[in-house]
């Protein structure tokens, strides 16, 4: 290669050098992207969706979103006229925005974002969709009166923050809860109905809810729609509140489960 390059004219040699440099930089870029795609998953956690670096989901027109909402309402047995009237009113925009504000105050800027509250108060926050085994270990440790932070493995530490003195909105009657509001351990999930990582995380939360006694564990769902990359998230969140208004707590969860299964 060096002999061939030395035989070239200076102009051709210069151009050859530029082409070679571009090829090397391009290859390095491909390797970097591949490593980023596999890194977090290999460590047992998915990157959380966030407004600056999150993965944008395929968007739909307002008409498409309206059809998605009405189809789910029909599927779960809500009164069509009452549901449509509620959705069109926009009456729950403020509640959804309030949830988002509470999440940000607690340190959440991506989804899913979870505040884990134990018998003695907030224990930690979790950013991203971590494995079900992680959550079971943390829940079991808190139920046994242990130090949950000691159970966080090194590869998961970047996703977990100790939260002993966290200022967070406590669970109240406005929340959507699977389990008891008085449960010893509560996972408060701030989520986005269009977030692909949230959809991957939803079955994890469903498994936890079915594994533990409702007096030991409760799943609390709150909204954190990332509207800059997920245009469907806000209307879906507001529609879920209408599902609760018409169908009660069961109506909300039926709506949420249906959206997350899509």
List keywords for this structure.
alpha+beta, Glutaredoxin, 262 residues, 14% strand, single chain
What is the first-to-last residue Cα distance? Answer: 55 Å
- Determine the CATH superfamily of the largest domain: Glutaredoxin
Question: What oligomeric state is this?
Answer: single chain
Instruction: Classify the secondary structure makeup into a structural class.
Output: alpha+beta
Helical content class? 40-55%
Number of domains: 2
Q: Count helical runs.
A: 8
**Relative strand content:** 5-15%
The shape, in one word, is globular
CATH topology of the largest domain: Glutaredoxin
Give the radius of gyration: 23 Å
The CATH architecture assignment of the largest domain turns out to be 3-Layer(aba) Sandwich
Low-confidence region ranges: 1-48, 50-54
Q: What order do the strands of the largest sheet run in, or round the barrel if closed?
A: 5-4-3-7-8-6
Mean pLDDT: 84
Query: What is the makeup of the main sheet?
Result: 6 strands, mixed
How would you characterize the overall build of this protein?
This protein folds into 2 domains: 41 residues; 199 residues, 3-Layer(aba) Sandwich (Glutaredoxin). The chain has 8 helices and 8 strands; from the N terminus they run H-H-E-H-H-H-E-E-E-H-E-E-E-H-E-H. A 6-stranded mixed sheet has the order 5-4-3-7-8-6. The radius of gyration is 23 Å and the shape is globular. This is Thioredoxin domain-containing protein. One of its GO terms (molecular function) is oxidoreductase activity. Pfam families: DSBA (PF01323), Thioredoxin_4 (PF13462). It comes from Candidatus Jacksonbacteria bacterium RIFCSPLOWO2_02_FULL_44_20.
